[in-house]
Amino acid sequence: MGDGRLLHPTENKQRFTSVEHPQTNGQAETANKVILRGICRRLEEVKGRWAEELPQFLWSNHTTPYSSINKTPFCLTFGTEAVIPVEIGELSPRTILFRPAENEDEIRVNLDLLQEVHEIAHVKEYAAKARATSQQQQRLTP
């Protein structure tokens, strides 16, 4: 079977690919850098109890809006903003106005609009990168 005989009857071709694609891993690498930087800062404070601190740090990371697009990673993934644990126990507009019967419909609408949210975030991110590039060019040009 290792000689490719199984592939001939269906005219399929066997191709081997690399597991690593560095050119497509930019976003994951950037996210990992942010997480590692935050963990390193907290490790200094908690002296090795990183396993206990990781969930809080990740929650903080997922619910903090990116400045360039003003959306949280949680919102970009699930189509709605997370209710943070502090809000659950306190009276806030989000908890007071919550209607369980209507919530499912609202979640469906948010998920339908998620592609549009992604596109808007992409445009804002591109604009932020263009601004950064322009500022960098101005610094380099005498």
TrEMBL record:
<feature type="compositionally biased region" description="Polar residues">
    <location>
        <begin position="15"/>
        <end position="28"/>
    </location>
</feature>
<feature type="compositionally biased region" description="Basic and acidic residues">
    <location>
        <begin position="1"/>
        <end position="14"/>
    </location>
</feature>
<protein>
    <recommendedName>
        <fullName>Integrase catalytic domain-containing protein</fullName>
    </recommendedName>
</protein>
<dbReference type="GO" id="GO:0003676">
    <property type="term" value="F:nucleic acid binding"/>
</dbReference>
<feature type="region of interest" description="Disordered">
    <location>
        <begin position="1"/>
        <end position="28"/>
    </location>
</feature>
<dbReference type="InterPro" id="IPR012337">
    <property type="entry name" value="RNaseH-like_sf"/>
</dbReference>
<dbReference type="InterPro" id="IPR036397">
    <property type="entry name" value="RNaseH_sf"/>
</dbReference>
